[in-house]
Amino acid sequence: MTSAALQEMLAERRGGLIAPPAIEVSGLDAHYGSSQVLFGLDLAVRESEIMVIMGGSGSGKSTLLRHLIGLERPSAGAIRLLGQDTGRLNAAGMLDLRRRIGVAFQGGALFSSLTIQENIKLPLREHTRLDERTMDIMARMKLEVVNLSSCGDLMPSELSGGMLKRAAVARAIVTDPKLLFFDEPSAGLDPVVSSALDDLILRLREAMEMTVVVVTHEVESAFKIADRITILDHGRILEVGTPRQVRESASERVQNLLNRRAEEAIIDPEEHLRRLAGGM
Amino acid sequence: MLAIMEHLGRRTVRGLDELGYAGSLLGESLFYTIFGRRLRQPVRAASVVAQMIHVGIEALPIATLLATAIGFMLAVQSLYSLGLFGAQSFAHVGIGLALVREFAPLIIGVLVSGRSGSALAARLSTMTINQEVDALRAIGINPVRFLVAPTLLAMVIMLPALTMWADLVGLAAAGMFVSASLDVSFAAYVSNTAEVLSVNDLLHGLGKSVLFAVLIAIIAAVNGSRVTGGSEGVGRVTTRAVVHALSAIIVADMVFGFLATR
């Protein structure tokens, strides 16, 4: 059995409704101004699962992520993270929940006025009463996990794109979160660095038993790391399944996305013109 | 005509929206300053001190230069205009009152607006574009209490302090010119000026500087956090923040002066 097949088998077993959901999305609607971008999404991510959310530009995957990490409030529907309905939490409850969530943003989003070490210590400084020495030790441990142990004293501007993303991962995991979210981890990276980052995500899941959600449009990366894949298209879920199920999907749109065909090719020209004319 | 009305309507709505947002930022900053510790979201003293150093201490050389220039300028103009009536010996009255009540807070407001207001707007807008503000929120740190409140507090503390410094430097500079021009001792000038100025005059100037501090910080925060359009947007909102702050300072100065002398 190849390692890929083994991985898929394990993924299917993991997806065998044994583990309770770490993330539950039900009937999620989202609007930007007057235009609706998500339409009644239902989604469940199980504990210790790596769920990859894929879709073309404008599919709503980044909007979904922003709702999952609490940066946007749903127009309708509910999001439950680690069993807690985020819409019903007060400020203190939301703060406690955020401590159990890590987010690695697309460009790293490290604070440019702080060193890498200080960036990683920031969540600890804000949310714990640890002394400076303990925070230093914890930050160095996380830097070692992401192979950046010699970069603690550098400023973010002194790191390459791949190093920035790894430093962002170190900051995201410094509080040992239960949920870890990645926004386009491979974007802007060469294939070697991108593959190394994929390996890091897999390693983190194995070592820390985190539930991981990755938003990406990189097909190769998605199939390498995913236990299950969700395909979004124009704000609706097109397909949810293991990599094998998605690869064998009968949906033409899914196959178009996987084969990286131009999105315009699958848009109805009349519909496209109507959109350009301002949704009349 | 319809297009003009529509444009005006949009601008009015946007202005009101920004006004409301400014109010909410101010309210939130005050809220976290007072109740932040209880909510485990404290406004950290270290951040306030760092901003105080940036807003106040680092501005001392330029504030000293400007206050000296204003003092000299007031002395020159007072001696000239009063000389037309042969009343040069009363120059200290106009200089003292104008400097303490008007020019010192105004020039410090203009200086801090151009220096620290623009820096805050640029910092907030860059952080917004780079998703650093999103990262703060995702970490569970309220961006208003982390970024805006420390600067607001620092400005509210340091603008009056800089204004007092500008009062001293400006009066001293004017005194040197007046005493040399009228051949009176510097001590006599100081004594005459102290007789003219009251605590009320000092508080008038300091009250203005507190108002200017709030305006500069909130206008910079409103513009910085509403940036759109990448690095071009950063330049745009930074310029806008300075122009708005200067306009607000001058209008507020007029209103404050009018109301305080009724």
Can you give a write-up of this model?
The complex is a heterodimer of chains A (280) and B (262). With 280 residues, chain A is α/β, with parallel strands linked by helices. Chain A folds into two domains: 3-100 and 177-276, P-loop containing nucleotide triphosphate hydrolases (Rossmann fold, 3-Layer(aba) Sandwich); 110-168, no CATH class. Helix content of chain A is 40%, strand content 23%. In chain A, strand 4 (76-81) and strand 5 form a beta hairpin. In chain A, helix 4 packs parallel to helix 6 and helix 5 crosses helix 6. The longest helix of chain A is centred in the C-terminal third of the chain and has 18 residues, at 191-208. By secondary structure, chain B is mainly alpha-helical. Chain B has one domain (45-260). Chain B is 86% helix and 0% strand. Chain B has helices spanning 2-35, 45-55, 60-83, 91-129, 132-139, 143-182, 186-196, 199-225, 230-260. Chain B is elongated, with a radius of gyration of 21 Å. The A-B interface holds A 66, 69-71, 91-92, 94-95, 98-99, 101, 103, 105-107, 109-112, 122-123, 126-127 and B 39-41, 126-127, 130-132, 134-135, 137-141.
